[in-house]
Specification:
- By secondary structure, the protein is mainly β.
- 5% of the residues lie in helices and 42% in strands.
- The protein has 3 helices and 32 strands.
- Strands 2, 4, 5, 28, 29, 30 and 31 form a 7-stranded mixed β-sheet that branches.
- The model is unreliable at 1-46 (pLDDT under 50).
- The radius of gyration is 21 Å and the shape is globular.
- The chain has a single domain (2-21, 39-431), classed as YVTN repeat-like/Quinoprotein amine dehydrogenase (Methylamine Dehydrogenase, Chain H).
Length: 432
């Protein structure tokens, strides 16, 4: 268990938000030529004078309520996965005890719709489109088997489907229409990333021949270490020179490096496409101390520090950060010890440079399926519990996995209250 957590953390030290690919005829991309360089300031050297005066952490320790009857302000459709879900004083069960369900709970009508999963819910992973309109999911692969990727709308109705070949895996959405897929790690000689429209089957190969592309990690390929903006115009990728890895922002259309930043992990573009965040190790602190900090990078290449945890905490590790739909807030798990056993929910307001830090601790990487079960790339997606935003940016759904059971908690970010809303249920999405 401890070995797995250590390995997982090392694997994402450079990046772990990326893409997967669909088996499709390779197309060679022209080798980019650097025509201009506008270097971003390395994260360790970003001036912290201004943020040191305004960055604050608010510690919040509300009591946990079990009464969800007062939650009348909720909007959209919550999506929960489970074998038998207890929600709103009701039990929702699959057709037989060998399968699982997705519960689509409409918060306006207070009614639930069931979608039957053919296998145990523990084997699936889910990604929500940036506009909160669609939920895509597939089974984590234990073997070289072809599985369907299925896309559902807020009513739990299928709106798209395509089959992943046996050596390809789903990862995330590129934009509101296109999914990003990547190749299995065993096929190291191919470097195409492919965007796929699950409704009409349209496919597009994304550029791959970046200068000094780094793909030397054992458990990941270049696709796992690279993210494109929703228009595929900009890419953040790992570059290696003289055994040093940097994160480079690259303009695909102009074949131009916009800038670079030392190392980094968990990069993700904001829904409004104007900037991305990346979690960088603060180089000004000793290695045995370690401080993760969030850095914001504009599409033009300018980088600014968004947090200064080293002035408040002895040690911190950031995992599973997620943008709010309005591109203002970032929710993430904050751990203050190694190895990572538990973490607290933290919500950063990028406009005020404040962090709300909740006392309740959960395991951000619940180990769901036993010591002998491996899922390749899907290992990470299945065994993680990212915060899930409501479409109106007011709430977060959180999974607390203990003793092989999941519970769902609702965090109200305005009243700073916590309510347990479901048992035997894993939150996997919140759609409009």
């Amino acid at each position: 268990m401890k070995q797995y957590r250590t390995l997982l953390y090392l694997s994402v030290l450079v990046f772990l938000v990326g893409c997967t690919q669909q088996a499709i005829a390779p197309v060679d991309s022209p080798t980019p030529v650097i025509t201009q360089v506008s270097t971003m300031i390395p994260s360790s050297e970003i001036a912290d004078d201004e943020i040191s005066n305004i960055f604050t952490i608010n510690s919040l320790c509300p009591e946990i309520s079990n009464d969800a009857s007062s939650l009348a302000d909720l909007k959209g459709t919550m999506v929960l996965a489970g074998d038998e879900i207890s929600f709103e004083n009701e039990k929702f069960s699959p057709d037989n005890d060998q399968t699982s369900i997705l519960l689509f709970w409409n918060t306006s009508s207070q009614k639930g719709t069931i979608y039957q999963l053919p296998e145990s819910q523990e084997y699936y992973y889910y990604v929500t489109s940036p506009d909160k309109e669609k939920l895509a999911f597939t089974q984590g692969k234990t073997l070289a088997i072809s599985y369907d990727v299925i896309v559902l709308n807020h009513d739990g109705e299928e709106s798209g489907r395509f089959t992943l070949p046996d050596d390809w895996n789903l990862f995330d959405w590129l934009n509101n229409e296109m999914l990003l897929v990547r190749q299995n790690r065993l096929q190291k000689d191919k470097k195409e990333l492919v965007s796929v429209n699950p409704v009409n089957g349209e496919q597009q190969i994304l550029p791959a021949n970046f200068p000094n592309l780094y793909s030397g990690m054992t458990l990941v390929d270049w696709g796992a270490l690279t993210i494109f903006d929703p228009t595929s115009t900009l890419a953040l990728y790992p570059k290696i020179e003289e055994n040093e890895v940097t994160s480079v922002l690259w303009n695909v259309r102009n074949n131009m490096e916009m800038g670079s930043i030392s190392s980094g992990k968990w990069p993700r573009w904001s829904p409004d496409r104007k900037r991305l965040f990346i979690v960088a190790d603060d180089k000004s602190t000793p290695v045995d101390v370690g401080h993760d900090e969030i850095v914001l990078i504009k599409s033009e290449g300018d980088a600014t520090r968004a947090t200064l945890f080293r002035n408040h905490l002895e040690h911190d590790i950031i995992n599973l950060p997620v943008w709010s739909p309005n591109s203002r807030y970032v929710a993430f798990w904050l751990s203050t010890s190694v190895p990572i056993k538990t973490a607290k929910l933290a919500v950063l307001d990028t406009e005020t440079s404040t962090v709300d830090l909740y006392c309740k601790e959960v395991d951000p990487f619940p180990y769901r399926m036993g010591e002998n079960n491996t899922l390749g790339y899907a290992y990470y997606q299945v065994n993680s519990a990212p915060p899930i935003w409501s479409p109106d940016n007011k709430y977060l759904l959180i999974e607390d996995y203990q003793e092989f059971r999941s519970s769902t908690y609702l965090f109200d970010l305005q009243s700073h209250s916590i309510t347990k809303i479901a048992d035997d249920a894993r939150p996997v999405g919140w759609l409009k």
